[in-house]
Design a protein that fits this description.
Elements: E1 4-9, E2 17-22, E3 30-34, E4 37-41, E5 49-52, H1 57-60, E6 62-67, E7 75-79, E8 82-86, E9 94-95, E10 105-110, E11 118-122, E12 125-129, E13 137-141, E14 146-147, E15 159-160, E16 169-173
Antiparallel strand pairs: 1-16, 2-3, 3-4, 4-5, 6-7, 7-8, 8-9, 10-11, 11-12, 12-13, 14-15
Length: 174
């Protein structure tokens, strides 16, 4: 892209865009996962509307998306407070109950051959599900994110790292 233009500005000034998804089955539908909720465009990003707001501040944060390869109308989104699922290309969303309902889901992936098997990365563990997230099992715990800051190097004390921020706007070439 030689030239770029802004196609979406988040309504909340301090919010980041953490994830973006163009639906493979319907490329005119674009989803933007933000700190302030989930937004959808059904016209290639020309116009946007809010599609989901969580019940809490952490529930509003959208970290990741996954399209269902078997059912192209189904989309999974990892939030700061569990998993949400849409069965109508992102128009409506429901929060899934279960073991992940209070976890920040940072990433979602599908097994390439077992289409029912999903993997979820949280701040503390990797989980596996053989039934598209209905039930999950912890595969292993992740080591805590630790960093040595310049101030702490002399004392040897560790400090937890803050998650990295996202983008403030979405821009496209053209």
């Amino acid at each position: 892209g030689l030239s770029w233009r802004v196609v979406f500005k988040i309504p909340q000034a301090e919010a980041n865009v953490n994830a973006i998804k163009i639906l493979p089955s319907d490329p005119k539908i674009v989803l933007a996962g933000c700190d302030s909720g989930l937004f959808i465009s059904s016209d290639y990003g020309k116009h946007w509307q809010r599609a989901y707001s969580g019940a809490s501040d952490s529930g509003n944060v959208i970290h990741s998306f996954l399209s269902d390869t078997v059912d192209p109308d189904t989309i999974y989104a990892g939030t700061g407070n569990g998993l949400i699922v849409s069965n109508d290309k992102g128009v409506t969303w429901r929060k899934e109950a279960g073991q992940l309902s209070d976890k920040a889901i940072r990433s979602i992936a599908r097994h390439p051959e077992e289409t029912e098997r999903l993997f979820f990365v949280t701040d503390t563990a990797l989980f596996s599900s053989g039934n598209k997230g209905q039930t999950v099992s912890r595969m292993f715990s992740l080591p805590s994110m630790v960093t040595d800051s310049e101030d702490d190097q002399d004392t040897g004390e560790d400090e937890e790292a803050e998650p990295s921020g996202g983008l403030r706007d979405i821009i496209i070439a053209g």
